[in-house]
Write a structure and sequence with these properties.
CATH class: Mainly Alpha
CATH superfamily: Cytochrome P450
Strand content: 5-15%
CATH architecture: Orthogonal Bundle
Shape: globular
Number of strands: 10
Number of domains: 1
Oligomer: single chain
CATH topology: Cytochrome p450
Structural class: alpha+beta
Number of helices: 16
Amino acid sequence: MSQPQPPILYDPWDPGFIADPYSRFKPLHTQAPRLIQSDKLPRSVRATTPPGAPIAMVARYADAVTVMRDDSRFGAARPAARKSAPGLGVFGAPPLVFTDPPLHTRLRRLMGRPFSPRRLREMEPRIHAMAHELLDRIEIKARGGREFDLMTEFANPLPTMVIAEMLGVPASDYEAFKWWSDTIQETDFVPPGAPFPSRIMEARNAMRAYFGDQIERHRRRPAGDLIGLLIAAEEGDALTAEEVLSFVILLLMAGNETTATMLGSGWLALGRNPDQLELLRSNRNLIAGAVEEMLRYDPPLQATVRHARMDTELCGTPIPAGTSVFVLLAAANRDPARFEHPEQFDIARDPNHHLSLGEGIHFCLGAGLARLEGTVAMAAMLDRFPRLRLANPAAPVSYRPSYFIRCVQSLPMRLD
């Protein structure tokens, strides 16, 4: 008689789970993907899946790679039963991350232009200047004290400034842009099935009106910023205004969150592993590797979802068509079958093929930008404040009320 499988304690909107998801993942590394009937799921998880359908939990690294690479069996586009799900309404046109080929192929080809290696090299001096502009403010403020909040004073504003400049937002409109950006990102806090607060839709509508006007101006008078690059497509295959707007909103949400969250979680890990912080201080050549380990150890995007496009199986587990497949990236990044000492934060880890930026055709389009922002920001902070550290490494940390995007709300730092 087979032994009953241990329960999966997976509730991504439970405060206890948000505070410590990693201890809940460990049992999943020893078993094949689990298929769980919807009536056995927490209410919050049931709200993210088609009515009555099971979900499959994928936590092992090899299984996660299989799902994300096999877009013929596991699609990113939501099933018809979930097309009107909360979260999509903020975009308008389907965003890149929720599309399958051939639409995905077309969108990615057209949307990838602003993130070419050449464009990123051209952006590096400006990102460096923006980072030091924020550090200037911190240094001036710190003259009356030695502490500042990493999230509110550096990690959150830096990617917003970068994206605003990429989009050609003038300084006179920056305050409005920042409010739109901050408010739209709150969509990730809305529980499944709940309507968006009116302020989110107000911000979305105001930003759509603003950039809708910008798109029309660019069509009449082309420019070299991101919007100009997005609409300068081959005749007959140009992005529609709705597709450009959808991508701008996606860039705001994903682009801001990845860098800000990585810096917050990364400095938290460094502060709680002082040997690694000292190693980084003594060898700046490790910064790029440290950014990769920050992404692996506590990834900004903790999970992604695919949907079975047909009846199939995964490592012997039957997956009926329409099943939502929860790919737990954070769990896969700590799979002992793939990573030696996975619970250890090691900035010199090599190789470090984590899944935090995706895999397959949905590998993060802005991965190069996120890595560039991370390395520039870390180098600037260490150069400017060589003894920068957590104000209190033992202090409890609160996270924003979201599981999928894992972000420290506040992280007090001290300048010694």
